[in-house]
Design brief:
mainly alpha; 6 helices; flat
Length: about 180
């Protein structure tokens, strides 16, 4: 029993370290997951914004309308920026905070471009939004292709196992038919 005590203690320390590391990494994983979810919905929102602003709607009004039509994490981020705008924060500062809180380089860049577009004038804002929308759709397409490749790679092992099982059944029945 005295020989097992150091081993048990070492295993306990290792388990504690693993648990603490997982606990410490969880917030970062959640932030990364939120960024991925937002980027998936983001191109649609940017396209809506560009359409609404090009049709004559002001940015604040378009932002509130686009917020109502989004879902998930992006909706929460946009809703908090709408709350800030309603509570007296400037549109520019609320959009800047939106980009910062997103934890996504694409959304930070979007927020920076929108702020610059507001400062330069609304005619350039529409052009900026259209360009951003095209780039984000391309990014989303690339992300979906990567997800498809990962999914097909995950299916490779089960497919190979099924093929091996089927081959085993065919070979064994052939051997039984031959009397081997």
């Amino acid at each position: 029993d005295s020989n097992r005590a150091p081993v048990v203690l070492l295993l306990g320390v290792i388990a504690a370290v693993v648990l603490v590391k997982n606990y410490m990494d969880e917030p970062q994983k959640q932030l990364e997951q939120r960024a991925v979810e937002c980027v998936e919905e983001f191109p649609v929102m940017v396209m809506k914004l560009s359409l609404m602003i090009s049709s004559g709607m002001i940015l604040r009004e378009a932002w509130f309308t686009a917020t109502e039509s989004t879902k998930g994490q992006l909706h929460e981020l946009m809703a908090s920026s709408c709350t800030r705008m309603t509570n007296g924060m400037s549109d520019i500062e609320a959009i800047r905070k939106f980009g910062y809180e997103s934890n996504s380089k694409e959304m930070k860049r979007f927020a920076t471009d929108v702020v610059q577009g507001i400062e330069k004038g609304s005619s350039e804002l529409v052009d900026i939004l259209v360009r951003q929308s095209e780039e984000l759709w391309e990014l989303k397409k690339q992300m979906m292709l990567q997800k498809g490749e990962k999914a097909s790679a995950k299916l490779l092992v089960p497919t190979a196992l099924m093929f091996a099982g089927l081959l085993l059944v065919v070979v064994s029945s052939a051997m039984m038919g031959q009397g081997i």
